[in-house]
Amino acid sequence: MFEQFSSGYYLGRLYVEPREGDAAAIAAAAHEQVNEQLYADEGISRTDLPLVMKLENTHFTVYGDERVPADTIALPESLVEETNVRNPPSLREVFLAKAERARQLLAVAAGTPTSEEAVEEAVPDHPFDGEFGGPTGI
To answer: What is the pTM of this model?
Structure first.
């Protein structure tokens, strides 16, 4: 689903479609698989933590949802409106933050220090929902 792209991101192609609510989601099985395959080697043992993805210039957290079709990312309608997606579902390049980059972005969004110890304490319990950053992203 995702391949090596840069030192901070993996690259994938997913269908983008709108959804009601405030949080982005991919298929629950894919969410768990991505957590295990891409983040397990980085010392993350939980597979229910949010992923951090980027579409165009906006970063957002992504959760698993069994109602989302395979190879699809369902975004809040407000976020879809900020993109160049005009006729969903639309196949788009989506960036997935690698474990270290995701920790940094989540810590910044939570307003917590970015040291390893502080992030480990703050990130698992923080309820990250929906988009963070804004139109220009982080």
So the answer is: 0.74
